[in-house]
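Here is one record:
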Amino acid sequence: MGPVRDYKRLADEPSAIAPPAPREGDVTAQVTYPEPERTMTAEQCQQGLGTTQSTYILSRFASCSGAAFLQTWTQNGRVVGQSQFIVLTVATVEPNSRTVNFQWHFTDMIAVGTTQTSALFIEPETSIPLVVPSSAQIGQGGNVPTRQSFDQMRALGGFLHTLTVSAGQGQAPDDLVSAVYEPTIHLTFPTGVNGTREGDLFILPPRWDAASYLHNDTRGGAASLAYIGYLDYSTAEDAPEREVAEHLEWALTTPEETYPPNSEKHIAGGSLNDPLNRLFHDQTRRNRNRSIAVSTCRTYWGADYTQGGLYECDEFPFATTYQGCSAPRYTDGGYDPTIPVTDCSAFPLLATDNSAAGQLLGQFYDKNRVVDGYDDAFIVRIH
C-alpha cells in the first residue's frame, strides 16, 4: 500500500496469505479481535511460500520472502556436481515497537558430487532503494556479514538486520514514513560453475507512524508492514457479530438488492483492488456517513425501526471509512449535495450484533495499526 505499491510492477502471482486467526475462548462471552501474529520461523516462511509465491504474509507484523539458488559444477565441459541453497528474509515487528527486524535464514545448503564450495562466495545486500519522505533517516543495526563462502554461510545459518525510524520525520497528519526493503544476493563463482550470479528477493515494505489514536511506545508511534489488512467477520451461529457479517455478505455479493435501491450499485470493501480506507480525522464526514445511513433506515423501515432500541441501523461501508454513505457526494475533493447517495447499504439489525461488530472493528483498527487515509487500506473477509 501507499508509496511502495508503485515501486515496481506488481507480481504476477498473488502473495500467500495466512487464513483467518481462530477466535479464542467462548466467543459469546467476550468480544475480542485476535491479536495479529508477530513472529515467524524459517519453517513457517518456507512452508507458506511453497513453490510459487514470492511473499508469505502472516500479518501486518510478520511476513517473508525467499529465493532458491542452484549451481552446476563442471570439469572439461562435463557436469561433476551441484550445490544449492535457499535464502529467506523474515520481517517482524514486536508490539508497540519502532524497530523492524529482518531475520535472514540460509537453509537447504547442499552440495553433491565434486564441488569446491569453499571457493563459492555469497554476499548479501540489504538494500533500501526507496524512503518516503526521502528526508527521513533510517537507523540500521544487527550483525550483517560481509562476503562469506558457501561453507561459512552454512555454518553461520543467518543473521539479523534491523531498521528503526525516529518519530517526527514522517508525513502529516500521522507522521507516516514508508520504505522499500529489497534483499539481494550476489554470488562469486570459481571457474567451472554455472548458475544465477545475482538475485533479488521480493520487496518487504516497512512503515512507521505516530498516529495518536493508536497504541504508541515511549518514543511515539510504532512500525508495521504496508500490506492491505484483512478484517474477519463470522456468520457462525455463536459469533456475536453474526447479523452484521450476514449483512456485509449480502452487500458484497448482491449489492443491487440492498437499500437504498440502485440496480447498478457498487459497494467497496470486498476485493484487493477495491479496498476500504479508514476515516478518522474528519469527524464531520464520519457523522455525515452515519446520518445518511440512519436516514435510509428510517425511509425504508419507518421512524420506529429500532423497536425501542432492540435494533440499530447498520451501514456498509462503515461510517469510519472514506467509502461510507456520504462518499459519492465527494467529487474532486469537494462536497456536492446534489449527487444521490446510493453506493452503500443500510439495514436494521440486532443492536447486540451491531455493537459487537463495532467493537471488533475498533480493535481491528487498533491492533493492526490502520491509519487514516488512502496510504492505508483493508478489506472484509466473511467466513
